[in-house]
Amino acid sequence: MTKEIDKFEVLEEKITQLVEAYASLTNEKTALGEKLAEKEVEIQGLMEKVARLSRERETARERVEGLLNRLERLISHDRHG
Question: Is the model's pTM score more than 0.85?
Answer without folding.
Answer: no
